[in-house]
Write a sequence for this structure.
């Protein structure tokens, strides 16, 4: 079973930052936090991952709390194309276990 | 290839028939994963291959489901005596082993059992 907790849905206005929270209070020392997203009718897409430091790439930023029990995915300027289900996953090196994710709706 | 290729993209089959779903991973990706996603649901892990061996097949829902991988490349997921509850999108992903687990997913096979 998935070990993370995410809100079921969120809304965001186009052009604004989307901040998606995730709780992973049982994460162990060697487990990473991964974020994927799934746009309607497509396979999931890798976004970003981190261990304990904040991370940024061309898609998003990942902020991990110092105790590593929660994190926030930030899409700095959301577009309509960012409407998707966003999955937060904690895992070691073997496999990803997807939960139900957060359905983000970006509106004009 | 440039991405993960799955075939067929759509499959309609009669209850009780056997089906084979194919996944062609990215060249050089030694890890391969099968998931399924029922309508409106999250992704359910089925099986994981490292090379030709399957160290984790814990997600296969019944003995009607099996998978194999040959030559460390193409994988086939077989469902015998299909049931209506097998209807779902079957997704395949591949990755380089270890961290990061940055999977590349295929577009999936939509299986409908009638």
């Amino acid at each position: 079973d998935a070990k993370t907790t995410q809100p079921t849905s969120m809304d965001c206005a186009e052009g604004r930052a989307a901040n998606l929270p995730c709780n992973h209070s049982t994460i162990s020392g060697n487990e990473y936090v991964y974020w994927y997203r799934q746009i309607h009718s497509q396979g999931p897409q890798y976004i970003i991952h981190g261990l304990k430091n904040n991370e940024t790439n061309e898609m998003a930023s990942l902020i991990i709390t110092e105790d590593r029990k929660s994190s926030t995915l930030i899409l700095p300027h959301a577009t309509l194309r960012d409407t998707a289900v966003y999955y937060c996953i904690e895992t070691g090196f073997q496999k990803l276990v997807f939960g139900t994710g957060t359905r983000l709706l970006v509106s004009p | 290839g440039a991405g993960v290729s799955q075939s067929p993209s759509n499959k309609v089959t009669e209850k009780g028939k056997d089906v084979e779903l194919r996944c062609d991973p990215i060249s050089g990706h030694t890890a391969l994963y099968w998931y399924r996603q029922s309508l409106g649901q999250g992704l359910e892990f089925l099986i994981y291959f490292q090379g030709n061996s399957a160290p984790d097949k814990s997600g296969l829902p019944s003995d009607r489901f099996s998978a194999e991988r040959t030559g460390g490349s193409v994988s086939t997921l077989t469902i015998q005596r299909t049931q209506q509850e097998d209807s779902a999108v079957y997704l395949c992903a591949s990755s380089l082993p270890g961290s990061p687990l940055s999977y590349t997913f295929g577009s999936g096979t939509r299986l409908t059992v009638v």
